[in-house]
Amino acid sequence: CTSIIAEDKAGKLYHARNLDFGLFLGWDIKNSSWIVTQILKPLMVSLDFQRNNKTVFRSANLAGYVGMVSGIRPGIFTLTMNERFSIDGGYIGVFEWIFGKRDGWWMGFLTRSVLENSTSYEEAKDRLTNARLLAPAYFILAGNQSGQGSVITRSRTAALDVWNLNASFGTWYVLETNYDRWKVPLAVDDRRTPAMKCMNRTMQQNVSLPALYNVLSTKPILNKLTVSTTLMEVSEGRIETYLRDCPDPCSPW
Amino acid sequence: LAKDPYGEDCRYQQYPPTGATFRGSVPDYIINLDLPPRERWVQLAHEKKDELKTIVEHIKKVMIVFFPSGKLLHLLESKMAWLGSTLPYPFNEEIEGIAHAAEVGLGDIVVFNVFYEIFTV
After folding, report:
1. Smallest Cβ distance to A135: which of B24, B55, B120?
2. pLDDT in tens, B43-81
3. Which residue of A has its CA nearest to B47?
């Protein structure tokens, strides 16, 4: 996955992501694609969660999955999560859960609960930073005011890093793939460097949802695992999701 | 370092989405949080039941490749429904409602919902 939060010169915040999934779960030689990635595309839906006929939050989701991987609480915050691989992975949390230690959150349920119940960027950030989890994750959270953007790197028990937007000091965007920002990504899976190159070329004065879509359409940020691209703009409550293909030649991940 | 063989120059003017990298738009659904949890996803799960069955069957095929005896799959199928019952409210009841509406085994929908936790290794 690749998630980006960017702030324009007027302090308006944009949030976008590529949802990549299906690695090593079967390759379709005939169509030159990952089987699960292809199977997931017809399951992608845009959901509007309502109470009393009014929108509480909206999300881009897979049908059948009650947790959230991308969502917007209109006017308040936007949230995406990226997978974080670790030896201290979710299977340990699952075993703990099975054996009765049930004080942690399943990742998708936490993001769902945050989108459904948190009423401010700060509250959402506090929950995503401090809640105990069953599996490590990256939470990418943006608010509706200048500087309200962060990448929260989570282990199962703690926030290892919180990387905040700070446009006045030059950090006008934050970008997360599937690697800790203080570590070099795998040489065969470096989507961070090309994505940053494209963001730097875009420049802050040109940031917009179409500009982020351009970045997320550039290979290898767009790759054979990419199921969809979601674009969000919090102040207008806008969320758009598009299914993607990556014609050859295209990186398998 | 060698140049990324799949890399390309930054793309421009890709929006509005069109062309070979655009597969299509996604359908919209309303989830009514005023309904009991079991009823919230009924319409969506019913309309997507064929697609859900396809992914569930594929995950089973993958597991058979790694564990050909089928013992793990059998164990998982029998235990996942129980795991579903331990999940917190309202998610446990929502998952039950999806399994019922999609006519898919409860354990299969539970696996789909906890796949992230298992996959992060």
Report:
1. B120
2. 999 999 999 999 999 988 888 887 888 887 788 778 899
3. A63
